[in-house]
Amino acid sequence: MAFPSRRLGAVLLTCAALVPLQAATVSQQSADVFAKKVAQIQQQGLQVRGDRRDAVRRTAVTEDELNSWFAYRAQPVLPPGVSQPQITIVGQGKVAGQATVDLEAIGRRRSTGGTFDPWSYLGGRVPVTVNGILHTQDGRGRFELQSAEVSGVPVPKTLLQELLSNYSRTPEHPTGISLDEAFELPANIDKIEVGQGQAVVVQ
User: Fold this and answer.
1) What torsion, rounded to 10 degrees, do the Cα atoms 66, 67, 71, 76 define?
2) pLDDT by residue (tens digit) across 141-197?
3) Phi and psi (nearest 5°) for 140?
4) CB within 8 A of 132, min separation 6: which ones?
5) In the chain, fewer beta carbons within 10 Å around the N or the C end?
6) DSSP symbol at 137
7) Contact predicate 19/98, CB 8 Å
8) How many angstroms from the chain centroid is the CA of residue 63?
9) How far apart are CA 146 and CA 144, in angstroms?
10) pTM
11) Three-class SS of residue 180?
């Protein structure tokens, strides 16, 4: 089974966007199940859906399946310097995530050396935790940030934006992803319903 496209993988990671897991079960089998569901979502996205109500396709993805995929299959779609992503699907649109991020290079580049410059104190591989609400409708998505921490210390939105911009740059998007910017959902996804422990992809 081929890995999902980088675009879909990036959207899944961004939506979770970047709270440790609670009683999560991670396995190769669950990773394979998730990979099959992603392939199914991609295939369904190629089909033009009419206006009939029974043509709506709903694919449920569990928290364990997603985290298993991150553990066993996500490496090819993760940017260099980002590892060990973990997602908690809280419910009612709320999601939380944690990833280990290498801040050494970006810290050296951004630091002014000033006493009150947060970049002066950042370096090495540290856990970055993000909490927020995923809003999706009519093929568009937006992540509403509620809080962010680096090594357990609350950080301002501007610092998180700098991290996101640095690690999401591509030749097509040299400035990277903006936290406040709405994005197009891939594979003709209409919306994603975020429940407790699972998310339902609606096409």
Assistant:
1) 40
2) 999 999 999 889 898 998 899 888 888 888 888 888 899 899 999 999 999 999 999
3) -125, 150
4) 17, 94, 95, 96, 143, 144, 145, 146, 147
5) N
6) E
7) yes
8) 12
9) 6
10) 0.78
11) coil
